[in-house]
Amino acid sequence: MNRKQYIANDTLALVEYCIDQDVKAEYDCWQDPDTQKGYNFQMDMDYEKFKNRPVRSRFRAVILRKEDGAIIGFISLSPEQRPPDLAIMLLKEYRGHGYGTAAFSLALQYCFDAFGLDKINAGCYEGNIASLKMLQKCGFVPYPEGNEEEEHYLTGLPITQYDYVKMR
User: Fold this and answer.
1) pLDDT digit string (tens) for the chain, length 168 residues
2) Contact by Cβ (8 Å): 79, 57
3) For the residues of 16-31, what is the DSSP string, one character each?
4) How many angstroms separate the CA atoms of 35 and 45, rounded?
5) Which CA distances in Å does 120 have to 33, 78, 101, 131?
6) What's the gap between Cα 15 and its chain centre?
7) Among 37, 45, 71, 148, which is most buried by a count of CB atoms within 10 Å?
8) Is the Cβ–Cβ distance between 86 and 77 less than 8 Å?
């Protein structure tokens, strides 16, 4: 299948998400406890329900490694009715190699250009050092007004999602 390519660098490409090809890898990524922890969300949907859920993102892309076409993760931008918030999810075997930072940088460039945005938000939960470092490397700065306290998905105890912003 020939996918629409949104943006690329020498290593990665952000390409069109295709249900038939990509939903299984995304579902498998959600099964990882570290992914659930990173989103403060317990995935309890079965595969069929996950596959048929509505997609509300204004932008959703697959992160492909160009050398071998491997799906390494997914990027999405919040729905149009909400402030632009960029999120990333990497498959476990591709974490810690700099792919997240590279993919997030590409997505930022694409979203600023394609949607004419002046700022993009992103968040991470307290204790998520890898995501915090990625946001800092991509030029995000703290935006305390956007911090949200919520209940931890497993313990019910308070946990803070820290908000960050990147201006064009």
Assistant:
1) 689 999 999 999 999 999 889 999 999 999 999 999 999 999 999 999 999 999 899 999 999 999 999 999 999 999 999 999 999 999 999 999 999 999 999 999 999 999 999 999 999 999 999 999 999 999 999 999 999 999 999 999 999 999 999 999
2) yes
3) E--HHHHHHHHHHHHH
4) 15
5) 27, 10, 15, 16
6) 14
7) 71
8) yes
